[in-house]
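Re-run with default settings, no changes from the original entry. Doing this only to confirm the output is reproducible before filing.
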Amino acid sequence: MAALCACRWTRDPDGSPLGDRLEGRSPDPPPYRGSRRTRAARRRVRLQGFEGTSQVGTRPKARTTVRGMRRWQLNGWGEPKQVMELVEVDAPEAKAGQVVIDVRAVGLNYPDLLQIKGSYQAKPPLPYTPGAEIGGVISEVGAGVTQWQVGDRVVWMGRNGLADKTVAPADGPLRIADSLPFDKAVSIPTNYGTGLFALKDRACLRPGETVLVHAGAGGVGSAAIQMANVMGATVFATAGGPEKKAVCERLGAAAAIDYLSEDFV
């Protein structure tokens, strides 16, 4: 099982909009200033890299309009730093049966990177906003929605996550505890969902059986080790290097194999 988690986007601690900071890196682009709805021009920021360099351009005034939020957008396929643009767009509104989520964290996985490059088996229509694992706070509730209130904390396996806001069907999000940070909540859907599907639906794992988990220190692998133990199996794992091998053992593997120096066959 391959590890999927690549990196994670969050809001700054002061609550500034998504995209101001890539966690652990220098700000890119600079922090957003001013009212979202009174800007005189549409600003486009082309992502040149994650180290703070960016190219800023302004559209002609004759084509400007009032905008409500920012999102990362693709108009073509390629390397992320070449095709991703930060654009201002109208903020979504909740229609009947929908909710609007103020995005606080987004999980980026290997399939997201493949989609950005145009290498995934399914290509969404352009323009496209990556980010399927979304954690945030419900800020608007549409007509007919009774299970959610403004302020509820949720995680959603959906779409258009790399934005200040996204809209979701009311039956899509899952409620999360106040004690669960958003950046940890968004690591659950893909990693644990993939691991559970592999163990329960594909392998039909039963108590007393033995399972070998490859890349046990990665996202899906670490989840699979824990779930296989809960399901009553004996777990062996492979990992690359002594540190990752130790991670597998701490997670509950009966034994871990360093495939860089040992043969697991």
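The mean pLDDT is 80. The two ends are 16 Å apart (CA to CA).
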